[in-house]
Design a protein that fits this description.
Blueprint lengths: L1 H15 L1 H10 L4 H27 L8 H20 L5 H8 L2 H13 L5 H17 L12 H23 L6 H19 L1 H5 L6 H37 L3 H13 L5 H40 L1
Helix pairs in contact: 1-11, 1-12, 2-11, 2-12, 3-4, 3-9, 3-11, 4-8, 4-9, 5-8, 5-12, 6-8, 6-11, 7-13, 8-11, 9-11
C-alpha cells in the first residue's frame, strides 16, 4: 500500500509545479490551447513509443485497452485545459485551490454513484484539508474575489473534470498494462484538446521550436510521469484516498510559484500547507493501521476455519 501511495503523491507533486512554467510560457506569447495540446500530443508520442518498444522486445504486439480508456482520457485533457485557462484570469494560487475541490467532489461522487460511503477518517481528513486550503490559497485576502467570474468557473470546472479522471482511472482498465493505459488516455486527452482548440491551433503563428520545448518539458512532468504514477497507484488505493493525496499539488504549486515566479508566500499560506500535509500524514497512518488490523483479522479467521 505504501508504494502505491508514494506513486500517487509523486505524480501529484510533478503535476503541481506545471502552472508556474505555464505562466512563463504565457509570457512568451503562447496560449492555453497551444500549450495543453502540445503537452498532451508529445506525451502520447512518448508513451506510445514505450508501448511499441516493450511489445517489440516481447516479439508480439497486442492492445488490451478499449475505447472507454480513450474517452476517459478526455476528462484528463479537458481538466488540464480548463486549469491552464483559469490561470489566465485568476492567480495561480487561487486556481490550484479551486482545483483541489476535487477532493470532496471525488469522495461524494463515489458515494453517490458507487455507494461507497466515506470513512470517518476520510471525512475528517477532507475537512482539515479544506480548512488548510483557505489559508494555503490566501482566501482570507479579499482581493482574491476581485476577478472575472469566468476564471472561478473554469477553476471549478477543472476540479469536476479532474474528479471524473480520478474515478475513471480507478475503475477502468485495471487489467491493461500501465504504459498502454496511460498512452490510450493521453491520446484521448490530446484529441479532445485539439477538437476544442482546432480553429486557434490551425491558425496559430506560434507553432515553433519554443512551443515544442515547452510542450516537451510539460509533457514529461505533466503527461508522462503523473499518468504512469496515477494509473499504477490509484487502482490500488481507490479514488477517495487518491483524491486526498492529489491535494499535494497545492503545496507544490505554491512553492514553485515562490521559487520560480518569486511570488510571495505569507505565514498563513505556510500554515495552511502544513495543515494539509498534517492531514495527509494522519490519513496515511490511520489507513495503514486499519489495513493491518483487517489483515490480522482475516488471518485469525483463516486459522480458526482451518482448526
Amino acid at each position: 500500500m505504501t508504494k502505491y501511495i508514494t506513486l500517487v503523491a509523486l505524480g501529484a507533486l510533478s503535476f503541481g509545479m506545471l502552472s508556474s512554467f505555464a505562466k512563463i510560457a504565457y509570457g512568451q506569447g503562447y496560449n492555453a490551447g497551444e500549450i495543453t495540446f502540445t503537452q498532451a500530443a508529445l506525451g502520447a508520442i512518448i508513451l506510445w513509443s514505450i508501448v511499441i518498444y516493450k511489445n517489440i522486445r516481447k516479439g508480439s504486439f497486442s492492445l488490451k485497452g478499449n475505447w472507454k480508456l480513450f474517452l476517459a482520457g478526455s476528462s484528463m485533457g479537458t481538466s488540464a485545459y480548463t486549469y491552464y485557462l483559469s490561470v489566465e484570469y485568476i492567480p495561480a494560487s487561487l486556481a490550484i485551490v479551486l482545483l483541489m475541490q476535487m477532493t470532496w467532489i471525488s469522495i461524494m461522487a463515489e458515494w453517490l454513484f458507487f455507494k461507497k460511503k466515506p470513512s470517518s477518517i476520510e471525512v475528517i481528513a477532507t475537512l482539515i484539508i479544506i480548512a488548510g486550503t483557505v489559508f494555503a490559497g490566501d482566501l482570507l485576502n479579499l482581493e482574491h474575489f476581485d476577478f472575472p467570474l469566468i476564471g472561478i468557473v473554469l477553476g471549478l470546472s477543472s476540479a469536476l473534470l479532474y474528479s471524473l479522471y480520478v474515478i475513471f482511472t480507478s475503475k477502468l482498465g485495471n487489467d491493461v498494462p500501465m504504459f498502454e493505459k496511460s498512452a490510450l488516455m493521453t491520446t484521448g486527452s490530446a484529441m479532445v484538446i485539439l477538437l476544442i482548440n482546432l480553429k486557434s491551433i490551425t491558425a496559430s503563428t506560434h507553432l515553433d521550436l519554443g512551443l515544442l520545448q515547452w510542450g516537451g518539458f510539460l509533457a514529461l512532468f505533466g503527461t508522462v510521469i503523473p499518468p504512469i504514477c496515477f494509473t499504477t497507484g490509484i487502482p490500488k488505493i481507490g479514488a477517495g484516498l487518491s483524491s486526498i493525496l492529489l491535494t499535494l499539488e497545492l503545496p507544490a504549486a505554491v512553492f514553485c510559484a515562490h521559487l520560480i515566479l518569486n511570488e510571495k508566500i505569507t505565514f498563513l499560506q505556510t500554515a495552511g500547507i502544513a495543515i494539509m500535509l498534517g492531514a495527509i500524514i494522519y490519513l496515511n497512518i490511520a489507513k495503514s493501521r486499519k489495513d493491518k488490523k483487517q489483515k490480522t483479522a482475516v488471518s485469525l479467521q483463516s486459522i480458526k476455519d482451518q482448526v
